[in-house]
Amino acid sequence: MKKYLDKFFTYLEVEKNYSNHTSLNYRIDLEEFALFLDKAPVEAVKYPDLRRFLAQLKGRNLKPRTLARKLSSLRSFFKFLQREGVIQTNPAKLLLTPKLDKPLPHFMSEEETIQLIESPKIGKINSPRDKAIFEILYSTGIRVSELVGLNVEDVDFIGNIIKVMGKGKKERMVPIGDQALNALKEYLDGRKADSKFVFGSRNGKHLTDRNVRYIIDKYILQQAMAQHVTPHMFRHSFATHLLNKGADLRSVQELLGHVNLSTTQIYTHLTTEKLKKVYDQSHPRA
């Protein structure tokens, strides 16, 4: 099975442009399946064999989302084997994915967002950097991994556009507002170290997701904000505030870099709740 796995992971990297994180998860899942097979040939795997493997996984009380990912790994692998002519029929085609509840994303109100963005105080050594981070996250809705991966050359100060590398190594162009650009320019003009990274660290590399999380936690503590804020909540707030102001779902999908519209639609639940509240408060027969 090893030779097929090696080919499969090359396929994921070269043709599908899967991220290293996704490829690593697929490798863990499929190597676990290889242990289950022991020395049995993968060409001989039938649907009942997959059901037995699935029963073994369920016996470990895995979370539904983890189980769904492992099933996705198996489906992709056997679909690849069928495409390569290793097997004639795909035994994983009949596997059913457990239904997953989509939790509503947490977001900040507009007032909370502005409070956090304005919290870095003038005169503090890292304030320009921290303010630029907050402004960019809220202005663009990009992921934290996309933020820390930004190079200076990715920012078009004239066109108000930044180029980001999203999931699956897919590039996209994202608009950025004047206030965020001004904060970024102030930070870049004032920093001492010259780096190709927009947010470089002392060791010459870029900041990490964890660094950004620590920065946010520091200001949350200072501001004594009741809500626990994660870096991703800037992204949730960005999408929710746009929809609340009348932006259409397709445009928000493009801005967020979502492949499927269904991923973006979860934010409509939040805006629907707001509409209900307005209706209840305003309609005389509500």
Describe this structure in words.
56% of the residues lie in helices and 4% in strands. It has 286 residues and is mainly α. The termini are far apart.
Helices and strands, with pairings:
Layout: H1 2-14, H2 20-37, H3 47-58, H4 64-83, H5 110-117, H6 127-140, H7 144-148, E1 155-156, E2 161-165, E3 171-175, H8 178-190, H9 209-223, H10 232-244, H11 249-256, H12 261-282
Antiparallel strand pairs: 1-2, 2-3
Helix pairs in contact: 1-2, 2-4, 6-8, 6-10, 10-12, 11-12
Report the count of strand segments.
3
SSE string, helices as H and strands as E: HHHHHHHEEEHHHHH
Low-pLDDT runs: none
Which percent band covers the strand fraction? under 5%
Q: Count of helices?
A: 12
Brief overview:
With 286 residues, this protein is mostly helical. It is built from twelve helices and three strands; from the N terminus they run αααααααβββααααα. A hairpin with a 4-residue loop joins strand 1 and strand 2 (161-165).
